[in-house]
Structure formats: C-alpha cells, structure tokens
Design a protein that fits this description.
Blueprint: H1 2-12, E1 16-20, H2 27-39, E2 47-51, H3 57-63, E3 70-73, H4 90-95, E4 100-103, H5 106-111, H6 116-128, E5 132-137, H7 141-145, H8 149-164, E6 173-176, H9 190-207, H10 209-214, E7 217-220, H11 228-232, E8 239-242, H12 249-256
Parallel strand pairs: 1-2, 1-8, 2-3, 3-4, 4-5, 5-6, 6-7, 7-8
The chain binds 2-phosphoglycolic acid (PGA).
2-phosphoglycolic acid binds near residues 177, 182, 221 and 245.
C-alpha cells in the first residue's frame, strides 16, 4: 500500500528532462540538434527543455516554435538592466521565449565564485521575472567522503528557502547534481541518488509538506541513455539534467522517452 501511494505521488509530478548544453554550440550544430530532436518527439510524455548558451537563444526559439520542446538559459544577472557589461538579465532571457534558467550550477559555483547567497539572489530574480529557476545543488567528492553530503545540500537549499520562501518552490525545479558525477562518467548509483533526493524532499517537507510533494527534483551527473531509466524510476527522482548526453539527439531522446 505504501509503495502504491509513493507511485501515485510520483505520478503527480511530471518527468522533466532538461539538456544543459554548457558552452557547446555552433549555428550548424544547433540547427542539426534541434531538427533531429523535433523529428523524435512523437509520443514523448516528459517535459523536454534545452538550456542553450545566450547567443543561440534566438535561433532555438525559432526552431522550436510550435513544438513541445521548451527553451532555457544557463545563467542570469540579478539586475533588471543597466551598466553591467557582459551580463544578461532575466527579462532578456524571457524576451527570447525561454521559460527556464539554470541557477547555481556547480561549474558556476566553483569556477565563477557563486556563493549560495548569490544563487539565492539569482533564483529570486528569475522568479520575479516569471522564469522557472532550475536550482542546482550537490556535494563535491571531498564533502561526500567526509560525511558532509547532507550538511552541504541543506546549506545550499536553505539559503534559497530563506530568501524566496517555501511557497516559491511551487515555481522551482531542483536538480541534485553531485559534483563528482558531473562530466566524469561516474554516475551516482540509483540508491545514492534516491537517498539524496529523499533528503532534499524531506528538507522541503519540514517547511511545507504539499510543496515538497509537488516540487520536481531532477538528477544530474553523467546521466545517459543506458542509466536514465533506473535512475528516473526511483521514487523521488523526477527526471534529469543532462550535460554531455544532451548534445546527441539520439541519446537525449532516449532519455526523454523514459518518462
Ligand atoms: P553531465 O553534466 O551530464 O555531462 O555529467 C550534467 C550537468 O552538469 O548538468
């Protein structure tokens, strides 16, 4: 009975498969990738999203018109406009038909010094503009090995809950991305991932049980066509945030079909 209940709660949450192209694109590759994706979308019930580098938002917007594929960006500046050379605002992202934006990806935290406080501000700016933030959290291998996984996740998540409030999570997608699994080919086992996802959901539930049940929590970190199904079938894993495998239409479509 408990298992049936968990399955039905999971069914309330749609499977979401999001591609994170990172800094990989050219006009030609984007054309080919999106065209190939669109030809394979029939019968896919997951929500499908591609997060493109800024210069390609306009191109993707045109290519996906009338399709089920949605567009997202990979970063944003918290200011609405002004003297911020090289930066891109939430409204600019929205202007190109994007509905989502990744915030707090571990590459931005580690390579560009984004703190959890900054990530929280970015989440707030995205929400204020009506974008759905795809909030990434996750521990490094050192943090896991020293038994700090839960403490790290809790710190990263509470920074956002404190700033935007728990109700805002009705408009937020969380991605659990263990840093040691990103781009390494070492995927978290379904047990490791499920354990972290359940912990994240319990943190949300401490604030609001119904928000916790509704918030999609995606797994990211070397998810591919062959391991997606066992990960996504876990009770608290609602889809994937896909890097490398999102650059090949065939692989990405295969993951999208899992939902
Ligand atoms: P990966 O990247 O699938 O290449 O590991 C995932 C991500 O960084 O979002």
């Amino acid at each position: 009975i408990i298992a049936l209940f968990l399955v039905s709660v999971k069914r309330m949450r749609k499977t979401i498969v999001a591609g994170n192209w990172k800094m990989n694109a050219s006009k030609d590759s984007v054309d080919n990738l999106i065209k190939d994706l669109l030809t394979g979308m029939d019968g896919i019930t997951s929500e499908v999203l591609v997060c493109a580098p800024f210069p390609y938002l306009a191109q993707v917007e045109l290519l996906i018109q009338g399709s089920k594929v949605m567009l997202g960006a990979q970063n944003l500046n918290t200011n609405a406009s002004g003297a911020y050379t090289g930066e891109v605002s939430a409204d600019m992202i929205k202007d190109f038909g994007a509905r989502h934006v990744i915030v707090g990806h571990s590459e931005r935290r580690s390579l560009y010094g984004e703190t959890s406080a900054m990530v929280a501000e970015k989440t707030k700016a995205a929400l204020n503009a009506g974008l759905t933030p795809l909030l990434c959290i996750g521990e490094s291998i050192e943090q896991r090995d020293s038994g700090n996984t839960e403490a790290v996740i809790e710190k990263q998540l509470s920074a956002v809950i404190e700033l935007v409030g728990i109700e805002a999570f009705n408009q937020i997608i969380i991605a659990y991305e263990p840093v040691w699994a990103i781009g390494t080919g070492v995927t978290a086992t379904p047990e490791q991932a499920q354990e972290a996802h359940l912990f994240i959901r319990s943190l949300l539930a401490k604030n609001d049980e119904s928000v916790a049940q509704k918030t999609p929590i995606l797994y990211g970190g070397s998810m591919n066509a062959s391991n997606a199904s066992e990960l996504i079938s876990c009770a608290d894993i609602d889809g994937g945030l896909i890097g490398g495998a999102a650059l090949k239409a065939e692989d990405f479509l295969q993951i999208c079909k899992v939902g």
